[in-house]
Amino acid sequence: MSDAALTPPRQRGALSHIGYVLRSNPVTMVAFGLLGLILFVGVFGPAIAPYDPLASNAANALQPPSAAHWFGTDNLGRDVFSRVLVATRLDLIISVAAVALSFVIGSVLGALAGYYGGIADKVVSRALDTIMAFPLFVLAMGIVAAMGNTIENIIYATAIINVPFYARVVRAEVNIRRDAGFAQAAKLSGNTDWRVLALHIFPNALPPLMVQVSLNMGWAILNAAGLSFIGLGVRPPTPEWGIMVAEGAQYIVSGEWWLALFPGLALMLAVFTFNLLGDGLRDMVDPRMRT
Amino acid sequence: MSLVSIKNLAVAFQTRKGEVNAVRGVSLELERGETLAVVGESGSGKSVTSYALMRILDRGGRIKAGDVTYSGIDLRKATERAMRDIRGREISMIFQNPRSALNPIRKVGDQIANVLVQHRIATRQTAKAKAIEAMEAVRIRDAEQRYSAYPFELSGGMCQRIVIAMALACEPRLLVADEPTTGLDVTTQKTVMDLVADLIKERGLSAILITHDLGLASAYADRVVVMQNGVIVEEGASEMMLVRPHHPYTQKLVAATPRKGAGVRDLLPEEARTPLPDKRPVGAPILQVRRLRKTFGAGANAVEAVKGVSFSIGEGESVGLVGESGCGKSTTSSMVVRLLDPTSGEILFRGDDLATIPASRFTRDKRRGGIQMVFQDATDSLNPRHTSARSIEDPLIRLSTLSRAERAAKVAETAALVGLPEHLLSRFPHQLSGGQKARVGIARAIVLEPQLLILDEPTAALDVSIQALVLNLLVDLQAKLGMSYLFVSHDLGVVRLLTDRVIVMRGGEIVEEGATADVMDRPSHEYTKSLIEAVPQPRMIPAEPLSANAAAG
Fold it and tell me: ipTM of the assembly?
């Protein structure tokens, strides 16, 4: 109807749009609040930790949570609270780097496959199917085991197992828009195929990609922690949620539950937060949500 | 007692911007055996009224007030269970897009059989035979073989027949047809509508025909109701509606409907008619197409879409390219605009053969700006992530040497030229109406001042009153800028208004070519004749329906 045409011109910037998305959905608001908390701890964790996460104190080992040690102490007398805080940064770095890598690689591969089709599509799609054919965690284990037990290799392994998800989403989104009117119009405007793909078609795949990113962030954290849990990945005594759960697990039977519980809760909270972000992120990058 | 009685119906939708009143107090009566047409443009509430009758409103929509009764049953109070029984068995509906109304992965016959079994018209054993009977009733030849066809294997018209067969399978008493022929070719439209009209008469049905096409409504309905912004503005016998429309909105609609004898300015409301600009004389040929051929696929699967067509367009000339879907007109225009590489042939643009330059390289060619195109679907042809200004500016960024400030000035100037208010330039496509999007698309195409503009059904998705504005805009732009037009369309009424010469294509070949008036009034080829005859002939539609003094124009 013509109502829209009659309202006075109103320019809305990206910031106010983000504000609108946050206000319109309380879940998104909560998710972004939690994300802010996690990022804050990631940046300032070492500064706000009450104790040195690596300092052991045999006299004070395996103490239950108390006012001095909120999350208790571990078998070497290290403060679990400080270790959980400090571990945030490492886990975030691993998951963000892995997701960023798989986002870029997956987008490029998927975009090429979706736009050019034919041979490019066949090669890319079958290669991705090959990756998907492996149990992904086992594949990640194999990569880390073969390439060596370093943080970079955890990142690469996590990135590789996530590439197919991005590539498939992008391939489908690009493919349906390959012959869209606006892509043809862009060609008539003097855009080369590359430009049409990168500047006109690909950005339209962003909303579903954002959902993928948020889910993947959770997986990536779980994957990194899982690798560390089974002893492939971050090595002790570096504080990392996965190792802490692994090391604490053996004490659960003897009643020292706090060693594994608190890092596990931190892990859960992080995964939960990233999974909740999806809808909000999608709405933020979707211009159609602007009214 | 009338079959359907709607009293003071009000329907509201809950949206982000608050409550939108789509229907505001509509009252209608439908007698048994009567065909009623509900006519209106998009947003008039015509479809919502029928959805409220069937109680199939979208989520967020609800009937706020009013009574809806069907042969004495209060449909607002009926249980969902009772409604399920009424839908299909008593009231049936035909939707706009037949392809999307059919399940793509099931055989069409099975889909009909399924409906029969569900409504207990047939048992599993007899379903197939009954379904074939139903298909024969809608004049599908070789119904037994077609039973096992999937929707994608059938043409649009054939799919619509299947949908009609499904709608009529349970012998309903009321048929609601929501834009049943939109998107179909004009000849298919005629056969489908004739079929529906025959079936209605044969079975003594009542029908509600929802359409934006006043011509179609008056040709097939007994009575017409005109809706605007959720209210009925006029109601009457269909003949009278066209001869003496009373309400200003109906007058505007009648005037905007292309018809024989009316010029392009006659489509506008009287107060908006400006003198028609002087037609520039047609100059030397700007485009010469010679033996253009396009084959898709190779070997045994090769399909020859265009079989060696030759034509030319003079400077400042408007040439229409008409034909039904699949005739090769879109393939031809894609090749001329250099989005598609021809298999063989020449495309001489101001003497240079462009066919030798691959389409992927031509995007960076300096002659790229000389040939531009206005796309069929304005929504689809605008990048959803770009504002109007960015969309219009795009060709300038790539193909001109203007500075940022100069580009902004050029965008503003072009927007003004196509009548796009400046404050709409910062909007995204989804914030614009259909007519505004069409203007953005036209502005983008002419911002580089092309010599040849290809128009691919630029008004097919628009309401008639918006179509009238856009057609006039195109005429004015041509006079101002001296462009040549290649107007690709299946709508002969529009082609007649806009073009000097017309080329009729069928099966990849040109079957007739000549001055528009000659071809339209004295078609020599049988195919052209059938195309022209298929245009709905409203009963008694006069050339000058409004008043005698409307001749000034």
Answer: 0.78
